[in-house]
Amino acid sequence: MDEQIIKTEYSELMQKSYIDYAMSVIVARALPDVRDGLKPVQRRTLYDMQELGIFYDRPYRKCARIVGDTMGKYHPHGDSSIYEALVVLAQDFKKGRTLVDGHGNFGSIEGDGAAAMRYTEARLEKITQEVYLKDMDKDVIDFIPNFDETEKEPEVLPVRIPNLLVNGADGIAVGMATNIPPHNLGEVADAVKAYMKDQNITTRELMKYIKGPDFPTGGVIANKDELEQIYESGSGKIKIRGKISIEKGKAGKQYFVITEIPYTMIGANIGKFLNDVANLVDSKKTSDIIDISNQSSKEGIRIVLELRKGADIEYLTSLLYKKTRLEDTFGVNMLAVTDGRPEVLSLKKIIEHHVDFQFETCTRKYQNLLAKEMDKKEVQEGLIKAYDVIDLIIEILRGSKSQKQVKECLTMGKTEGIKFKTKSSEKAAKKLIFTTRQAQAILEMRLYRLIGLELEALIKEHDETLARISRYEDILNNYDSMASVIMDDLDSIKKEFGRKRRTKIENSEEIVLKEAEIEETEIVFLMDRFGYAKTIDCATYERNKESADTENKFIFSCMNTDKICIFTDLGKMHSFKVLDLPCGKFRDKGIPIDNICKYDSSKEQMVFVSNLKNITDRELIFVSRNSMCKVVKGSEFNVSKKTIAATKLADDDDRLILVGIFDESDYLVLQSEEGYFLRFLANEVPEKKKTAIGVRGMRLGKDDFISHGYLLANRIEYKIDYKDKKLSLNRLKLAKRDNRGTKKQ
């Protein structure tokens, strides 16, 4: 038994298995082939539609039928992947040229999904039928067995344009992804012709024809000068912007209208864009927008922002480009399967592979056509020759006992067993030399072909056949002739299916957003015990001072340009802008702090809240549960990050007990859980960095910890409730730091 077990290194086996799986996903599922620019699921779906006869001039067929047939014959990976591929091929806002003509709800540019496949219908587009699937009967491509070897499917479709460029591609494989933008069909055709005329053409010269991507959503490409490098390397980032215009309405109103959007905004990102604009208004980043409306329809995108009089349009434009997806980047990675392996391709390389593929398919096409014409020539020459000896052939037919005798007589001159009227006829029959193909054609010839006019038509047809043979041989033997055929074909495709460019290409200046100056005013910050915060103006606070002081836990005045800092028991400091808070009426509830910063009320508790300007030029004193104390300069908390570690805690169980503004004349009182009190001068606590743990403030017994900390101002009496009595903290015995303290009963 042991000798039958093959010992293998586990890591090596896993590595091989993973690589096999990865390559299977890359080649058979996720990435397009450079030759036809299609993924397997797309290729199989289009081929199946052709096999079902769902042509552009035929009635639509249920998508469920197409999906079911494709899954059963060619693509056993689930109906959802097939239908999703079918839907995308029919969406004109995703593809440069749609390949499927959809009938019914195939989704919208705003992210609405397509209806179920049982409700929708489809058929091939004319371009698909005539440019992608034509000539498959002429042996131009190889067919391979399907997944269960019961059917044959095309290895690749005989696409006559660089579909990888025209329609682009996207896909995620294992460890790699492709993202190729769509281009203008006419420009691509011109670029292919230019390459065929000069194979040493540079990327820059190709870009005289292909200006850049041409997105179906239009928009503006803002980094024209970077496109050459992107096309040279096959990867990079394209900066795209929406197209805007300013319209004037009644009573001097102005409307900021977006008529074209970045390609990356299609789908749910349109709704997100509208929300982002609304958030800019809510957060007071701009006050120029009065109303937002989405007036988009089947005719196109139309998003309208109603502006107030005197609106700063230049600033608003910059704000929308900078803070929303009205300006976005398209990450280009021109990855495709080439000779069975994935490869990042340059623009020139894609065109080169396409041209090689066209020469291969054209060679096979014209070899097939030539073979057919040569067969016709042979038959035609046999029939013309037969007219001259038709009486002899009839005599042979009448005197023969079988077709075999006739064929042998016509091809080899054998006359044994055939009855002839005269010896001269037999002698003439022995001289006949027809080919087997010609003999078969003579036997199958109908009597009406003996009419004189039919002979003339046959001779004319033979001349035409000879002309075609000559042409096909010239195409096959002459590079220029074949190139001319391909280029003429590209011209006809461009003429019929080409359209004007939609995306504008330019060099735009980098958006520099100058924040609108905010008038600095003093306000009052209020936060209740539930963590709801707001700001009100000073006058409102003075009118409602008694109620405000009663209802709120944290109250202090600050400037509207300031930041709020929240120190928590976990040793963190959360900060946010005062402007992020609503400023309104006194009775407004406010908003939870959890919603505007990373503070989590379910996991941490507030220890100290202050505005940043109040602590920047001062010092803060920290006390933890484990009796660690330190003083930290307030300037260390003037940071851009919204959440930082305000202090370092001794261990996971340690918590901040006290954070306060430090003054050398203050006293620090520490209260332990076991009832020990220690009062000492705050200036005994040394200054440390915020990353330090600090020094011991009070000696603690085993299992004892600091439960409360108090910072007492000099000459101000401070009393607490302790064991149903009033305890004056100012009268506690003054001691030194790092003592046990006094126990109170």
Automatic annotation (TrEMBL):
Belongs to the type II topoisomerase GyrA/ParC subunit family. The keyword Isomerase applies. The active site is at Y119 (o-(5'-phospho-dna)-tyrosine intermediate). InterPro entries: GyrA/parC_rep (IPR006691), Gyrase/topoIV_suA_C (IPR035516), Topo_IIA-like_dom_sf (IPR013760), Topo_IIA_A/C_ab (IPR013758), Topo_IIA_A_a_sf (IPR013757), Topo_IIA_dom_A (IPR002205), Type_II_DNA_Topoisomerases (IPR050220). Keywords: DNA-binding, Isomerase, Topoisomerase. NCBIfam families: PRK05561.1. Its EC number is 5.6.2.2. Residues 31-521 form the Topo IIA-type catalytic domain. One of its GO terms (cellular component) is DNA topoisomerase type II (double strand cut, ATP-hydrolyzing) complex. It catalyses: ATP-dependent breakage, passage and rejoining of double-stranded DNA. It is an enzyme of class 5 (isomerase). GO terms for biological process: DNA topological change. This is DNA topoisomerase (ATP-hydrolyzing). GO terms for molecular function: ATP binding; DNA binding; DNA negative supercoiling activity. Pfam families: DNA_gyraseA_C (PF03989), DNA_topoisoIV (PF00521).
